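Worked example (supplementary).
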Amino acid sequence: MRTSATLLLALTLAVAAPGTAAAQRPAAKSLQIYVVDVEGGNATLIVSPTGESLLIDSGNPSNGRDAARIVAAAKDAGVSQIDHFILTHYHADHLGGLPELAPMIPIRHFIDHGPNTDPMGSGAKFEGAWKELYAKAKHTAVKPGDRIPIGGLDVRVVTSNGEVIRTPLAGAGAPNPYCATFKPGTNNIEDPMSVGVHVTFGRFRTIHLGDLTKNKEFELMCPNNRLGTVDAILGVHHGQATSNSEVMIHAARPRVVIMTNGTRKGGEPDTMSVLHSSPGLEDVWQMHFSLLSGQEYTVPGMFIANVPDEAPAAMPVEPWMAPPQGTQAPPAPVHNGPAFWVKLTAQEDGTYSVTNSRNNFTKRYAR
Ligand SMILES: [Zn+2]
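After joint prediction of all chains, the assembly is encoded as:
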C-alpha cells in the first residue's frame, strides 16, 4: 500500500540519514540541569553523567509546594537522593523550603558559606533547622577554590562568605574591559555571602552564583576575568538589578541565561537591558513572565515556563514598578497549580539543549 511504502521510506531515511542522532552512536551520558519553579526563589538540580546529584537551594517555605516540585524533578532525573546540597545563603527563598524537603528525600552532604551573617534576615529563623539537619549528616563550610566531589564534573567553588577566588580558572584571567565603566551597586548583608560554583563537563561550562551582588561581581571579575566565558548562567539572582552588571554578564559571554524570577520579582528593565545587549547572548529563559519586564523588555512566551493560576488576559506593555517589600506589598498572583521547569541537557562535546516543560519547546545549541 502506498501509505505503508511512504512510511517505510520515511523510516528508512530516518535511520540512514547522516547527521541524525539515530544514525550516530548511542547518546553519550549527559549532564542534566533542572531549574525548578519555586516562585521567585531558587532550586537548581544538577545531575552528573554518573548519576550523582547536586541541589542548589530549596525554594520557599510553602507547605511542601516547592519541595514537591523539587522531588518531581529528582524523580524525572532518576535520582532518589541528594548527594550534595548547597545552601547559597541564608534567605527564606533559598533555605525556607528545606525543612519541608528533607523528610521527602535523603540529603547526604550539606554545604554552606559558614554561619548566617544577618540575624534580621528572612532566613535567620531557619538556621536552627539547618544546623539540626547537617548535624545528622556531613557538613562542609566551603571556601573559594574548593572542589565539590561529583563524578564526571568539575565543580569549583568561586565565591563564598564574601570571598572570591584569587587565581583565575584554567584558561581564564584576561583583562576585563567592562571594569572601567562599572558602577557600584547596593548590598544587603547575606546576598554577597553567596556560595557560587563553576561547573565544567567536558567542553561545557556553566555558573550559578546564588544571589551574588554587583560589588562582589566586580571583585570576582576585575581587573581580570577569573572565570572566563561560559555557555550558560543559571539563576542570575532572580534577574534582580542589584546583580547582573556588565562586568559579570558581558564578560562571561553566556549564550543562554536561565532566570529564577517570579511574577513580580526580578526581570526588571535594568537587568533585561544588560542581558539583551550581552555579546553573544542568544536566549533568556525565565521561570515566569515578570510584570517588572512588561512586554517592553520580556522574551517570547515560548521561553517562559510558568503562568499564574489565573493568567491575565492581556500582557502589559509597560514594566511595573517593583511593589513595596513585606506587608506593604499586595498579594502576589497565586501559582499553586501545575509548575514547570526549564531543563538544560549538556553533552561532553559542549553541545547542549534547553527545554521548557510547559510547552515542550526545545532549542539545541551547537558548539
Ligand atoms: Zn534570592
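Two points are worth noting when inspecting this output. The pocket of zinc ion is lined by residues 42, 91, 93-94, 211, 238 (CB under 6 Å). The chain has nine helices and 18 strands.
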